[in-house]
Recover the amino acids of this structure.
C-alpha cells in the first residue's frame, strides 16, 4: 500500500512521512474518509484517511469551540490530535495478518488495545476509553476505520 493510498490528497496537497499534522474525525458525510488531516502551519486540509498512525501525539480541545457546542447543541471541529505521520507503521498495521503468528502482530494488538475518545458533553478533554482518565499525550495513536483512536502508550503531564 502506498502513501497515496493511505492518505487521499486534497486539492493537490498531501502530507509527507514524518510531517507534523493535526487529525480530526469528520463529523458529517461530506467526506467519505473517517479523518481529515491538516497542516498546522497553514491550517489547510492536506488529505483524508480512513486509517493513519501518528507518533508523539498531543491531544488538544479548544475551550471556545466546546462552549459553542454546549450552547448551540451543534457539533463543530474543535478537538485535534497533533503528531507526526508514520506511513510505515500504518502499512504494518494494515498488512498484518493476526493469524500468521507474526510477532509484529502482537505489538500491533498492544497498540490497538487502549482507546482514546472525546465527547464535548462529557468532558473538556480526551479520555482513555477504559480508564476514563484524562489523556493529553501518547507515544503513538492508530486512527482506525471504526472512527476511533487507539493508543500504544499514554503520557500525562502530571
Amino acid at each position: 500500500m502506498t502513501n497515496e493510498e493511505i492518505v487521499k490528497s486534497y486539492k493537490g496537497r498531501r502530507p509527507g512521512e514524518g510531517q507534523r499534522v493535526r487529525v480530526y474525525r469528520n463529523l458529517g458525510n461530506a467526506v467519505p474518509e473517517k479523518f481529515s488531516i491538516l497542516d498546522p502551519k497553514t491550517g489547510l486540509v492536506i488529505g483524508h484517511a480512513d486509517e493513519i498512525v501518528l507518533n508523539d501525539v498531543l491531544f488538544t480541545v479548544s475551550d471556545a469551540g466546546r462552549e459553542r457546542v454546549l450552547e448551540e447543541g451543534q457539533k463543530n471541529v474543535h478537538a485535534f490530535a497533533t503528531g507526526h505521520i508514520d506511513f510505515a507503521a500504518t502499512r504494518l498495521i494494515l498488512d498484518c495478518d493476526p493469524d500468521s503468528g507474526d510477532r509484529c502482530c502482537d505489538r500491533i494488538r498492544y497498540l490497538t488495545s487502549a482507546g482514546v475518545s472525546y465527547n464535548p458533553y462529557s468532558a473538556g478533554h480526551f479520555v482513555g476509553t477504559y480508564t476514563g482518565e484524562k489523556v493529553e499525550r501518547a507515544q503513538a495513536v492508530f486512527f482506525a476505520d471504526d472512527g476511533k483512536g487507539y493508543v500504544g502508550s499514554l503520557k500525562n503531564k502530571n
Summary: The longest strand covers residues 52-61.
